[in-house]
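call fold(seq) -> C-alpha cells
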Amino acid sequence: MRSQLKQWTTKTHALLDQRMSMLVLADRSDYATFLQTHHAAYAILSMGLPSQHWISATLHCALTDLSADLGRLGVDSMPLDGLTPKDDIHPLAIAYVVAGSHFGKHILHRRWSRSDDDLVLSAGAYLSNTVLKDAWARLMSEFETIPTPDQAVQQLGPDADWVFVLFMACLARAQEQGRAHAAA
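ret:
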C-alpha cells in the first residue's frame, strides 16, 4: 500500500518538497512561513476528519505545538478563508501525508537548529515533537489490516495527492502574506 501511494503522489510530493526546500528555516521570516503553512494545512485537515479517528489527535497535538511556536515568534496563524476541507476525504490519506512528513522533519530540524536567532530556536516545539513518527507506525499497522488494498488505493491516492496540493496552497498563501507584511 505504501509503495502504491508513493507512486500515486510522487509528482505532487516532489513539487511540495522542492517548494518547501527553498525556505531557510534558520531565518525568522521563512520559519514563520513554514509554521503558518503547516498550521493552516493541519487546521483545514482537522475540519474534514471525524473527531474520533486517531489521526485527529495527532493533528491536534501538532496544531498545539505549531500555535505555541508561532506565538513565540509573535506571528499570527494564517486566516483560513477560501481554504476548505475536501468532502469525504479518507482519514488514512491524511495520515499518510501528515505522518509521513516525519521523515523530512529530521532534515528540517537540522536546518532549523543552525539558526543563530535565539527567538527562532525558542520556537521548536513542532520540530522536536515525535507525534508524527508515532503516527507513522500506527499507519503502517493500519495498512496491514486493509482487506482490499488495491481498491483502497483508488480513494487513498487521489485524497493523499489532494493533501499535498493543500500544503502547496497554504505555502503560497503564507509566502504571499509574508511579502505583503514586508512591503507594509
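The chain has one domain: 2-9+26-183.
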